[in-house]
């Protein structure tokens, strides 16, 4: 993916750039709002990482201007303002996802890849498939290797989230937000427990494991 | 409808309520006391004037009457009944005492015209002096009585010549006015004395004086005094009400301001009229205080935000470096250390985040977000989230959430609070030999909603239950467990924001202990309860009480 990172903190920007480059993405940097707008207009990006607090032009203004100009590039908003209402503000202005500082790089990577992928025109799928694992979103059934897997509603949504992001890391925080709609981090390993139950249903009786734990980051569903 | 009935009752109730409110109003009471004091001193001043003008004048009249009476008595004693005859014979001027002339003449001149046996003298000496000289003539006593009675004096009693020495009567005299026909009733004071001859009471001497003018002046003064006092009282009450209302209005504005500020609207200020009076100065000082608080809050927030920016940013970098290094290190012992260091940085950042969040919750910034909602789906979700984790920790998780409850809450904050409570229960009950956690939401007394998490762990001693709500407070027993001591502080802040009460009590263990089945080794457990106030006039989300 080609990603534009708009961040005034040079060190942080360099780290993000280095990390994203290592993950195989092409990264451009912009240090303020005006430059960011110029660059976004000049080139096609697959995703934008936008800091909320910027010199010259506030991140939200940049986003509003972009959307008004008809630019639909997926935008991940970064901010030190972690409260839920700020998040709502950001999403309302046209952001695709919101990440509060401090964040781990893995979280950032996972989220950018998730929104970059969301822009694919395959949003209206009714069936998901990862290896021999199949999910029918209409019938709400899951089969692996032709064998029916019975899931609780929440387990179904958990698996759906993982399958939609197949091949990519999904962090625990992302799962909490997307599957449970919680915006705080529990201290205990609640997500791990749910994952291990899911794992028991989709992986246990099969030779190859699909659901992998990515150390220090989260989980990845991969054949 | 009941409203019509209500309307009829309303004015009276309103009046009573207004009166009650007025009487409770300090300013009203003070200014009413002032008005009463003023009215009182006005009355005293008027009474003094009355006494000097009217009462003393009457006293003077009485004194002079007494003097006249004494003179007549002396005259009578000197000459007895003959004195009259002598006087008649000798004519006026028998006594050369000029002062007595008028009176004597009055008696004898007038008396001489009548039958001596029943002389009654009654005539003007000067326009306002009446004198009588009464003889007891056994045969004509009745006539004397009648004549005296005509003067409005209590004649029958006088006629009996009882033992009273000095007689004092308020009487009414009929006086022919100067232009002739019309008889005018005028009030007189008359004093008299029984006179004796040879130890036998033989008659009464009366002297009277017209006091009509004095009495009228007195009456006019009394009515003027009553009227002016009533007006003063009325104006006093009126001005008290006015002052009190005016003052109460301004106090109410300040009260409203304080309530608003308490509710988190730190931008509100008291209106000023720049009259520099004490209320205006109070408003000025309040505003100054609020400005100061606002500056402090902003400084705190600024400090928080700049710490967020200045401290969290390098921390995040540190974390990212550790993470990157860990990924680069691959699968070895070095990576384990790096991952552990990254986790430590996470914990640090998390603590920092919590402190900021609590500070913001306490500032009440998010109170507007509260809306009526049914806690059941939220709590069901949480139960579902934590049930497996509890089971893994070897705890039985049960829940019992009543349907159809309504509370004023924010979904995110409520979830966070209950999640903190459940996690505390898992950590402390699970780590302390407990086996059960129970989540419940029930209707409490007076429409309040009780949401609680109870466990059968070691519990918290009663004397520590206040302390554990504070930030960073960790009981000695729990120091070995991970955590920052912010969980319950955050719940407390969230409860405050919801105007809910946070109650700590004995948990599930206490029932078993009370039931005599102590299989808990004396562990009472802990019950942490959030008591939400009744959500007023709201049934479900989106339906407000307004029409």
Comma- or semicolon-separated keywords:
heterodimer; A: 223 residues; alpha/beta; Rossmann fold; Arc Repressor Mutant, subunit A; 2 domains; 5-stranded parallel β-sheet; 4-stranded antiparallel β-sheet; 12 strands; 40% helix; elongated; B: 547 residues; alpha+beta; Heat Shock Protein 90; 5-stranded antiparallel β-sheet; 5-stranded mixed β-sheet; 13 helices; 56% helix; disordered N terminus; disordered C terminus
How does the SSE layout of this entry go?
The complex is a heterodimer of chains A (223) and B (547).
Chain A: E1 2-6, H1 10-22, E2 26-30, H2 33-42, E3 47-51, H3 59-68, E4 75-79, H4 84-92, E5 97-100, H5 105-118, E6 127-130, E7 133-136, E8 141-144, E9 147-149, H6 153-164, E10 169-171, H7 172-180, H8 190-202, E11 211-214, E12 218-221
Parallel strand pairs in A: 1-2, 1-3, 3-4, 4-5
Antiparallel strand pairs in A: 6-7, 7-8, 8-9, 10-12, 11-12
Chain B: H1 2-24, H2 26-90, H3 98-113, E1 123-124, E2 129-135, H4 141-150, H5 155-159, E3 166-176, E4 183-197, E5 200-210, H6 212-262, H7 278-310, H8 312-329, H9 333-362, E6 371-373, H10 375-392, E7 396-401, E8 407-409, H11 411-431, E9 436-443, E10 449-455, H12 487-497, E11 501-506, H13 508-514, E12 526-532
Parallel strand pairs in B: 7-9
Antiparallel strand pairs in B: 1-2, 2-5, 3-4, 4-5, 6-8, 9-10, 10-12, 11-12
